[in-house]
Amino acid sequence: MNENAHRSALSRGEFVYSAELVLGRDHDIPDTERFIREAAADPAGIRIVSATDLPGGNPALPPEAFLSSALAQGLTPIAHLTGKDGNRAFLEGRLLALARTGAHNVLCLTGDAQREGFEGAGKPVFDLDSVLILNLVSAMRDGIEYNMGRRALQATPFDFFPGAVVNPYKQREPDQMMQLYKLELKIASGARYVLTQLGFNLRKLYELKQYLRREGLGQVPIIPSVYVPTATSARRMDEGLVAGCVVPEALLRALQSEEKPERLERAALMVAAIRDLGFAGAHIGGHGLSHADIMRIIDRARGIGTGWRARLDELILATPGEYYIFPQGPDGFSDDTQPYRVGSEPGSPGLLQRACILVNRLMIADGSPGARFFAERLKPANGRAWQRGFWHDILAAADLFKKDAFGCVQCGDCTADHLGYTRCSQGDCCKETRNGPCGGSRPDGTCEVNPERPCVWNLAYQAARARGEDGRRYAETLVPPRDWSLNRTTSLANHYRRLDNAARRRTVSARAATADGERDTAPEPALSRE
């Protein structure tokens, strides 16, 4: 059996180099196969490769198409696993297949929004978001329990090594803080390492490390993505065609005249910096990069060493007005001895939110007068099964109100209270996320798919801040998957009968997860930025 080089290197505290293989349709097969062959043939070459899962929401080969080949040639693959194309049963089946193949490194993502496919755009699935996929992987690590008739069985435990992704390059406070809170949920749900979205601002990247250290999570390995853009790929990002990616104007201009050696030099400079700053590795990618290109980047980064510090202006490519968690320090990085810079957009609760929160406190929350009243009246009577009746019909009117006020789609498993009665994450979020935002929102905080709509999770964060809360509920509350057996039923009736998600939400802690669970990773190195 192949050693899991990814897991072993992180556990020893080694700096990990990995390469991303962006899989497309079958015309990309020769390039991918060539990369794997060249990496395997080079004794000092890349040993860890990740394979994407239908990136950009477009039809493509799945990662399973190359995992066996990579393993057979002595490489360690990381399989991307997204929730956009299959429901929870399909995802469990894919994980079973990955375990059978011997591919245990799984990068869990929500996935990109659907784009064009056969005869038009495909139907988005998004049954599980990235946090819930991590929970599924964790359950399968322990041996998932299920019923077969009257018997309760436990499946074989599988030794998965799950990872998560975060976007530390967000431009606004709500987007950035919600990314960090969701990352804590991912760590609490079993993520053992973190890859970042691609970006070009070293100060914002290092803030991620500073934040995790401040929150007692400094031992979690962070592996930044180092991307080598071309002028064409950068322009696509700038046009919003690659969700969640921001390309500073200075870089766009530079790429118009740069040749490949200059682009590889910039990547090598970033690799040198993140290695010197104590990150766990570098995940290198870019359109058309060969294995030789990536080895040039790595070799050049070793040559640069600590010399990146004299070229910091080439690595902190900022955009006007972007948000930072901490104020700037004298060294050009953020000063993490200072308090968080939160509350820049506090606002005030709207009349609708205030009214709904009051109603929730008096009529809906567990133990409230309304909850006790309706729970009693919705009990089965005289030993008969529960049936619709007068009180149920009274509650059904609430769904009509929610449809008009919040965009309710009558899922029967409502999370409106969790979002502060702003909007419906099942109706207004194209990915139907239940545990925080995807990483794809635009620089102005609008949805990647529907730019006329603000991200619902940004609204939830702003509503929490307006109520005087810090928003940490979104780092500590795990909302279970939607129960589709409740679809098109009355959500309040389900709530009072304790059938909805509110009865199954859990308070979780990333810090407790890293303290109690086996982390497979070395302690954070004590490095100075001086």
Overview of this structure, please?
The protein is α/β, with parallel strands linked by helices. The protein folds into two domains: 5-340, Alpha-Beta Barrel (TIM Barrel), CATH 3.20.20; 351-509, no CATH class. The chain contains 18 helices and 15 strands. The chain has helices at residues 5-12, 29-41, 64-72, 88-101, 130-142, 173-188, 202-214, 231-238, 249-255, 260-276, 291-304, 351-364, 369-377, 390-406, 456-466, 473-476, 491-496, 510-516, and strands at residues 16-21, 48-51, 76-82, 105-109, 116-117, 120-121, 145-148, 151-154, 161-166, 193-196, 222-223, 225-227, 281-285, 477-478, 506-507. The strands form four sheets. The chain has a nine-stranded parallel sheet. A two-stranded antiparallel sheet has the order 5-6. Helix 4 packs across helix 5 (130-142), helix 6 (173-188) packs across helix 15 and helix 10 packs across helix 11. It starts with a helix and ends in a 14-residue tail after the last helix.
